[in-house]
């Protein structure tokens, strides 16, 4: 029987779990706390597989995370992933995802003299939105509007990339909130 090493990345508890598998039986877990953008605690080409579930939506830098995943994979190693992704362009869903994820303030300040020969007074000419970033603060830095499939395929870090779009069926109800993550992907990529 062959001993296979793997890295399972999950958002919960900000843990990265190291596991060894004998065929399909999990032998043990060792837990490491860290960030997907910095897997320096693991040497190059350490793992036969990296499994990521709902992590790339929450990392600070998707590209750095993908580079680290590729670095710790052995040659021929497999990167398996599952994430929710940005909805189709020009839809209400993506408008809401963009609003909840990256609402930023935009103020244009003009200095206008109130009286002739008087010093200019700052006047806020236009305000657009307040700085909220509501969703990432509420749900562990989750970015609803990331095009993760495009990030993986355009990274050129993997020799073979397979992406499957799907819409999950949920057995529970969270009201309209569940529609924010209706579009999801899963797939695998080979180093």
Which key terms come to mind for this protein?
18% helix, globular, 9 strands, single chain, alpha+beta, 191 residues
Structure in words:
- By secondary structure, the chain is α+β, with helices and mostly antiparallel strands.
- 18% of the residues lie in helices and 38% in strands.
- It has helices spanning 62-72, 92-102, 134-138, 148-154; strands at 3-10, 15-22, 25-33, 47-53, 73-84, 107-113, 120-127, 160-166, 184-190.
- Strands 3-2-1-4-5-9-8 form a seven-stranded mixed beta sheet. A two-stranded antiparallel sheet has the order 6-7.
- Strand 2 and strand 3 (25-33) form a beta hairpin.
- The radius of gyration is 22 Å and the shape is globular.
- Mean pLDDT is 75; it is low at 11-28, 104-113 and 121-131.
